[in-house]
Design goal:
Largest sheet: 5 strands, parallel
Order of helices and strands: HHEHEHHHHHEHHEHEHHHHHHEEHH
Strand order of the largest sheet: 2-3-4-1-5
Strand content: 5-15%
Radius of gyration: 24 Å
Number of helices: 19
Structural class: alpha/beta
Number of strands: 7
Distance between the termini: 42 Å
Oligomer: single chain
Shape: globular
Length: about 450
């Protein structure tokens, strides 16, 4: 994942572009980090700790009461809502001796977003686990690693037999004494071939999936042994995996296959895990809650349903702004406030607005002006609304009417598509939706919706 540590607060106009980059999530230790947890409407981050059986005040995990109880939690939210930064904050609070040994798996940093299955992710989880254990100098007995390494080596032999039949390139893995290093070489080799040709990747997946019951057993036994070592060395009570980035995969078909079609395999892996859940899979919530917990992670509620501004949320976005950009680089606080309201409570959308405003700063300007902001909003609004269809506009009109009457709008596939495209934003626990202000600012919306 790209490192944001080199990016600093902008004190000059030419530094603004780097300060408003939204492609790299911010961790809780960075100077840019802003905690939005208490301005997300009905959402409370303390519920995540509760679901993980952690005390939300002390951040202590009650191991004795949860020996056989592993949590599988899906954190569901729209793109740009800040899920990754929230998870980074949660990880920092939980990664200690009285709670969890946290292992974060950013799949966009290790796997092929255009071609991926759940099997790729769980192999990546193992690789990341070994990397973090080695980094923390956790000593795992070679015999424990040996059983897992032997199983992987046997599967690689099966894959090679399948590849050899078609005269493809085999996976070259030498027999070695079990150790962190030797297993990491095998796992890395398998993962790198998953990133190679689709034909070989599919052969690897097929062999592993055909033996998934054995794999799950090996995985769970190894995790159990790791948990014993963590407790014996007073490092943590349990492992916790955080699997982030599924919404970044190339298609809904890939995302559905990973989460929904592979749900039986996911539930066979017996370890505490948080997955991020793309918003377009929320209609599958009833299926998921039969074996997991699903928590909605909404945008910051910047306006009430009746249109009233939530001043506490505006103040938090002002903090968010001035951590990145010195106040002297705006012509007035009113310019900042307008940009905040146009962001609709989405940190990412707000940063995009500032990015576009910076593009229209005149050569002799000394700050981001209201004029530059208005020009940026106009351009971004036109681009965002460019491919909105007539039927989309009818749905947006219905949503506006529902909000005016204080009613909820019924779910359908068209509304889901608008949520996925960030034309409609979602608040509270999903019961409150609004058209993104940038779309409302477009001429198309004004002409057809009003």
């Amino acid at each position: 994942m790209e490192d944001y540590s080199g990016y600093k607060k902008a004190h000059k106009l030419e530094e603004v572009d780097a300060a408003v980059r939204f492609t790299v999530p911010i961790g809780p230790d960075h100077e840019f980090f802003t905690n939005f947890s208490d301005v997300r409407g009905d959402f409370e981050d303390r519920m995540i700790y509760k679901y993980l059986n952690v005390n939300p005040k002390t951040f202590v995990y009650n191991y004795e009461s949860n020996k056989g109880n592993k949590t599988l939690l899906f954190l569901a939210g729209m793109r740009g809502s800040g899920k990754t930064s929230e998870l980074a904050k949660i990880t920092k609070k939980l990664h200690h001796s009285e709670a969890f040994f946290c292992v974060t798996c950013n799949i966009d940093d290790g796997l092929d977003l255009n071609d991926m299955e759940y099997m790729d992710i769980v192999i990546f989880q193992l690789e990341r686990l070994f990397e973090e254990l080695e980094k923390a100098n956790v000593n795992i007995d070679a015999s424990i690693i040996g059983s897992l390494q032997k199983w992987f080596s046997e599967r690689v032999d099966e894959v090679n037999r399948a590849i050899k039949k078609e005269a493809g390139f085999e996976l070259e893995i030498a027999a070695e004494t079990p150790s962190f290093f030797s297993f990491l070489k095998i796992a890395s080799k398998v993962k790198s071939n998953l990133l190679g040709s689709k034909e070989n990747a599919q052969k690897i997946r097929t062999v592993f999936k055909n033996n998934f019951t054995d794999f799950a057993s090996q995985f769970n036994l190894f995790v159990g042994e790791v948990n014993l070592v963590l407790r014996a060395n007073n490092l943590a009570k349990e492992l916790l995996f955080i699997v982030d980035g599924i919404e970044k995969t190339a298609s809904l078909e890939i995302r559905r296959k990973i989460i929904i079609e592979e749900s039986n395999r996911i539930r066979n892996i017996n370890v505490n895990t948080i997955f991020t859940l793309p918003v377009e899979l929320m209609p599958q919530r009833q299926k998921l809650i039969s074996f997991s917990t699903v928590v909605s992670f909404p945008f910051v509620k910047i306006r009430e349903k009746n249109g009233d501004i939530v001043e506490k949320a505006v103040c938090r976005f002002e903090e968010f702004t001035y951590k990145r950009i010195d106040p002297s680089l705006f012509d007035s606080p009113d310019t900042v406030r307008k940009a905040i309201l146009m962001g609709g409570g989405s940190p990412r959308e707000y940063l995009r607005i500032l990015e576009y405003a910076a593009m229209f700063i005149e050569d002799d300007d000394q700050a981001i002006t209201q004029i530059a902001l208005d020009k940026g909003i106009k351009k971004l609004a036109a681009e965002t609304a460019q491919y909105i269809s007539a039927s989309d506009l009818e749905k947006l009109k219905a949503l506006k009417q529902s909000n005016a009457e204080g009613k909820e709008i019924p779910y359908d596939e068209e509304l889901l598509d608008l949520l996925e495209k960030l034309i409609v934003l979602e608040y509270n626990d999903g019961t409150y939706k609004r058209v993104t202000p940038i779309v409302e600012a477009s001429e198309l919306y004004k002409q057809y919706v009003g």
